[in-house]
From TrEMBL:
<feature type="binding site">
    <location>
        <begin position="9"/>
        <end position="11"/>
    </location>
    <ligand>
        <name>FMN</name>
    </ligand>
</feature>
<dbReference type="InterPro" id="IPR003382">
    <property type="entry name" value="Flavoprotein"/>
</dbReference>
<feature type="domain" description="Flavoprotein">
    <location>
        <begin position="1"/>
        <end position="163"/>
    </location>
</feature>
<feature type="binding site">
    <location>
        <position position="151"/>
    </location>
    <ligand>
        <name>dimethylallyl phosphate</name>
    </ligand>
</feature>
<keyword id="KW-0637">Prenyltransferase</keyword>
<keyword id="KW-0808">Transferase</keyword>
<dbReference type="InterPro" id="IPR036551">
    <property type="entry name" value="Flavin_trans-like"/>
</dbReference>
<keyword id="KW-0288">FMN</keyword>
<dbReference type="InterPro" id="IPR004507">
    <property type="entry name" value="UbiX-like"/>
</dbReference>
<dbReference type="GO" id="GO:0016831">
    <property type="term" value="F:carboxy-lyase activity"/>
</dbReference>
<feature type="binding site">
    <location>
        <begin position="86"/>
        <end position="89"/>
    </location>
    <ligand>
        <name>FMN</name>
    </ligand>
</feature>
<comment type="similarity">
    <text>Belongs to the UbiX/PAD1 family.</text>
</comment>
<feature type="binding site">
    <location>
        <position position="121"/>
    </location>
    <ligand>
        <name>FMN</name>
    </ligand>
</feature>
<feature type="binding site">
    <location>
        <position position="167"/>
    </location>
    <ligand>
        <name>dimethylallyl phosphate</name>
    </ligand>
</feature>
<dbReference type="Pfam" id="PF02441">
    <property type="entry name" value="Flavoprotein"/>
</dbReference>
<feature type="binding site">
    <location>
        <position position="35"/>
    </location>
    <ligand>
        <name>FMN</name>
    </ligand>
</feature>
<keyword id="KW-0285">Flavoprotein</keyword>
Length: 185
């Protein structure tokens, strides 16, 4: 199994980092793209450096490397997660404007009929944001904002992050123990 992970500059870099850590622990091959603004967000919001995050992946590509393997439809993979996904990146994907490697890899993922999961981080949502999300959802893209669940009674921010990261991985068919599934009363 091979997964492409994008981390954009939206708040919530820890979601992408948690996803990478879990994929590494499962020995699932990962191909990472960190946007220019994500480098800043990683440093501002986490105890990681961008270099430490890059080391979690099997391969990390520069955000402007449009010749990277992940920019081609012939690069087979099991799906792509963008966590977090900025509204700028979401808009670029929705309009087919592949001005960065993350947007190009997402565009290729869509055109090849592979699973794409976006974890948009913005609130409140404007009508433009909602239209872009709706357009992508109609194309089969999974829009999964990292909205916390409380039925598992999270005791920490880490618990909340793991729940959303685990749900995103499950959407790619990757079994994990990062979250507890609702089993009813």
């Amino acid at each position: 199994m091979r997964v492409v992970v994008g981390i954009t500059g939206a708040s919530g870099a820890i979601y992408g980092i948690t996803i990478l850590e879990h994929l590494k622990s499962r020995r699932i091959e990962t191909h990472l793209i960190i946007s220019r603004w994500a480098h800043h967000t990683i440093e501002l919001e986490t105890g990681y450096t961008p270099e430490q995050v890059a080391a979690l992946a099997d391969r990390c590509y520069p955000a402007d490397d449009m010749a990277a393997a992940v920019s081609s439809g012939s690069f087979a993979h099991s799906g792509m997660i963008i966590a977090p996904c900025s509204m700028k990146t979401l808009a670029a994907i929705a309009s087919g404007y592949s001005d960065s490697l993350i947007a190009r890899a997402a565009d290729v993922t869509i055109k090849e009929g592979r699973r794409l999961v976006l974890m948009p981080r913005e609130t409140p949502l404007s009508p433009i944001h909602l239209e872009n999300m709706s357009k992508l959802a109609r194309l089969g893209v999974v829009i999964m904002p990292p909205v916390p669940a409380f039925y598992h009674r999270p005791a920490s921010v880490e618990d909340v992050v793991k729940q959303s990261a685990g749900r995103a991985l499950a959407l790619l068919g990757i079994k994990n123990d990062l979250f507890r599934q609702w089993e009813g009363k």
